[in-house]
Design brief:
two-stranded antiparallel ribbon, 377 residues, mainly alpha, single chain, 14 helices
Length: 377
């Protein structure tokens, strides 16, 4: 379990924490993916980030397998080359180390990533240490590190267009930890080329808009220099992180930490609110001009209450009753529990404020139409 899960933070999570699965619903990675897909319409940037992170995990997994076999396959550790390889492997870091932008990594994590890339460049083209079986022969749904970007919660719904390296296994098990297969050197190369052909090359299937210099550097590194280490994508990954952090992430926090409704629900509440208010005003004026008694006019409470509530929910992007019950909408009429403590606190306060506004406006309108003197036309 991540430390941040054990110690609730008294603030909103950062993008780095969301991407590294250190946040809970409704500001977790699953919710951010849904937001990028349905509202921001730029999910390719997030998929690129996840696939590069998965590529790094794949490289770490490959090196971890080499650790297990290095003593067997290179028993003469006194040779300088063997000493260098052993030293790099011993300082590589764990497979599950966080994969983040260079600005967010500690010095120790940066050194581990540099050692990882240095070893892969040194090992490029050398298959002496590659394990016998390859992950390329496994079903496409199995992930080499067992790390899943999207958990199968919220009723089992998953994004309909996951990236090619982001598919969950049916059972959610870690195939590598159970001996289901190991990573070969060719798998790392194939992973780097897939990222290149899917996101980087101009006119590719899901092209991510990057500066020309970064694109050319990646193409040169992979196609001409034959590199496939994680450092190849570092600049592109940092650029993508900054783009999401400056453009999409603030809107995501506003929609999830200060509201609990998605745009289709907001539009539905606007329509329902306007219809109810029209019905309330129509009924109110009819009863006034027919000079009906006050106990009959009191029926306008229903349309006015529903109308004001729906319009207030639309205006503030929050359903107060759902918020007080601890639910947030992630897709239309699909809800998840709010388990991030600070977000729950913000939504509760905002829900109480919206309820106060709803009651105040509703009471004023209702009193006006019930107690105004009638006049039969």
């Amino acid at each position: 379990m991540n430390p941040s899960y054990e110690t609730p933070r008294n603030r909103l999570p950062s993008l780095y924490e969301v991407l590294n699965r250190d946040a809970k619903p409704p500001v977790d990675l699953f919710s951010f993916y849904i937001y990028m897909r349905d509202q921001q319409r730029s999910v390719d940037y997030l998929d690129f980030w996840l696939d590069v992170s998965q590529h790094t995990s794949l490289c770490r997994h490959y090196v971890r397998e080499l650790r297990r076999s290095i003593l067997v396959e290179t028993p003469d550790l006194e040779k300088p080359a063997s000493k260098r390889s052993s030293y790099i492997l011993d300082h590589m870091g764990d497979v599950n180390d966080p994969a983040g932008p260079s600005g967010e990594l500690s010095n120790e994590e940066k050194i581990k990533d540099q050692n990882l890339s240095a070893y892969l460049r040194q090992d490029n083209g050398n298959s002496n240490h590659s394990p016998q079986s390859s992950l390329g022969s496994q079903p496409s749904g199995m992930r080499p590190s067992g790390d899943r970007p999207f958990q199968t919660y919220h009723g089992g719904e998953r994004p309909p267009r996951p990236s090619f390296m982001s598919r969950n296994s049916p059972t959610g098990t870690d195939s590598s930890s159970q001996g289901g297969g190991v990573v070969a050197r060719a798998d790392i190369r194939a992973s780097a080329e897939k990222i290149l052909y899917t996101y980087i090359l101009p006119g590719s299937e899901r092209e991510v808009i990057l500066p020309h210099g970064i694109v050319q550097a990646i193409i040169t590194a992979i196609e001409e220099e034959g590199r496939d280490d994680p450092e190849v994508f570092d600049e592109a990954k940092d650029y993508t992180f900054q783009a999401m952090e400056g453009d999409a992430f603030p809107g995501f926090l506003r929609s999830k930490a200060l509201g609990n409704l998605v745009p289709p629900s907001l539009f539905l509440r606007l329509v329902v609110g306007l219809i109810c208010m029209f019905g309330g005003f129509w009924a109110g004026f009819v009863l006034i001009f027919l000079d009906k008694p006050k106990h009959i006019r009191a029926w306008v409470i229903l349309p006015f209450t529903l109308g004001v509530y729906a319009l207030a929910s639309h205006q503030y992007s929050i359903d107060p009753i759902l918020a007080l019950a601890g639910f947030s909408e992630y897709t239309f009429v699909n809800f998840s529990r709010v388990t991030e403590p600070y977000v729950r606190k913000l939504l509760t306060r905002r829900a109480l404020m919206v309820l106060f506004v709803t009651i105040a406006v509703g009471v004023c309108v209702i009193i006006l139409f019930i107690f105004v003197p009638g006049r039969r036309l």
